[in-house]
Please model this.
Amino acid sequence: MDFSWNDAERAYRAELVALLEAKLHENWWNDFAYDGPAGPELMANAREFNRELAARDLVVRHWPEAYGGKNASAWQQIIVSEEMWSNGEPRSSLYLGANWAGPAIMKFGTEAQKQRYLRPIAEGRVLWCQGFSEPEAGTDLANMSTRAELLPGGGYRINGSKVWTSYASRADVCFLLARLDGGGKSGVTCFIVPMDTPGVVVRPIPAIHSPHDFNEVFFTDAVAPEDSRLGEEGQGWDIVTTILHYERIGAARYEYSRRTLDHIVALLRARGLFEDPVVRGECASALAMVEAARLLTYVVIDGRAKDKPPSADTYVARFAMIQADHAVANLGSTYLPDLLVKGGDGMLHAHFTAAITSGIAAGAAEVQLNMISGRYLGLPRGA
Model:
């Protein structure tokens, strides 16, 4: 594999960098990105920022032209992710729509659903949230209990709750999983539900890393029309196992960690700490983890660009990202703790708080290890 960028890809990155430099506010990290992409200031700013991206065809250039894209390669998609995430993800949860909700609708949706949902993503007009995890099941989606009941006149009545739902308090629409009947994987069905649907209530969950990131979402007799169902009844598990390969590495957290690591090294040099061989060794170890995560992610993107089916390489890349996040965050908290407080260094704080949840977001680290053991190493259950 050749991981060098061609002229078109370098020009695309330069276009993104120029836009970011022009549009991100002064003191961006402290005033907007401090609490991550789910923070209220950043989500409010994302509305205007995403329109700027869309005006330059920078939201979903990797999509087919029929749905607002330019038929660009998967490599251009990862370039967008690298530049956005390393700047605190100013798109906020638009990235969910661009990375995996949109492709899921393309693959499993009706033509009417494609026309209804894909254009608003391409135009940067909609922010998404993901209704997967539940209080009694966590990320074990097969044990979810939120139920959708088919109504006599058509449509579905939904009851249940979701937890740890990022972006829910300000998102426009939820990509929701609910069970129609049966246990385990059977009956799991996907719905696209507007967040202003009567019966949908969002309650923030203040957490140690942020007061804005997590929410619990309650569905009490919330009625979803029949055309809100994505795919067939009971097809949700197949849809989810397809899109999770997009979700797991959709956020280029390795690039965020790399640029944060470079920032940390500059601060350590300025304080005279980088001459300590122990400090230098820890920085080198963190750098190795970051670049390992990058290359493992590029393996997955290379397969996607060549239209290969998803593989267990996705889980390996995702777990490597978690390790890289933690290694860089540990450097900041060990040697620069005074900069992690309010009024300190916004970039360090934002990365550190993101790293706290990196082993949970987009699938818990333990889930990734289970998938690696079974689908990558071929080990039996319980080994």
